[in-house]
Amino acid sequence: MNRKERRDRRKEAEMLDEPRPGDSLFGVMEPKIKDLCDRVRQTSYYIHVYHGHGHLEKVYENALAHRLRKLGLKAEQQREIDVFDEDGTPIGHYFADILVEDILILELKAVKKLAPEHTAQILGYLKSAKLEHGLLINFGSYQFEIRKFARSQSPR
Q1: pTM of the full structure
Q2: How far apart are CA 123 and CA 121, in angstroms?
Q3: CB–CB of 40/48 below 8 Å?
Q4: Distance in angstroms (rounded) separating the CA atoms of residues 51 and 124
Q5: What is the DSSP pairing of strand 104-109 with strand 133-138?
Q6: pLDDT digits (tens, 9 = 90+) for 3-47
Q7: Of 56, 128, 145, 150, which sits most exposed with the smallest number of CB within 10 A?
């Protein structure tokens, strides 16, 4: 198969939203969430460049929410999110640092280095809130850190 045939086949697969070889376990990422993550990632990076590291988490939260709203995105700070048990029974709630467009949880940190507990925290939030996508962003280190998390809605 030559290059043109592969390109045409890829375009057809994209139009049909079929996973291609090399796609992630979760299939093709929806264009809306991919674009949303890219915009949050770029905005977060600009905040890190401008403000540097050393501020409290709340400063970065306010800056990120402000800039996302300037971009025309719905960004809710300290949004209460219900936590559900496996049978769907509500069992409590927590407050997401920022919830973007009701589909993307942003968990912000201002620490020297991300720890496994931070990863466990966002994965737990995604699972219990029954959301699929989250970003863990650390503004506290010298080097900007961001991690994308996605979970499948299908039970394993």
Answers
A1: 0.77
A2: 6
A3: no
A4: 29
A5: parallel
A6: 777 666 665 655 444 444 434 444 455 789 999 999 999 999 999
A7: 56
Here the tokens at position 61 are: 């939260």
Residues of 50-88 as b/e, b for ≥16 C-beta within 10 angstroms?
eeebeeeeeebbebbbebbeeeebebbbebebebeeeee
Q: Which residue has the tokens 């994965």?
A: 123
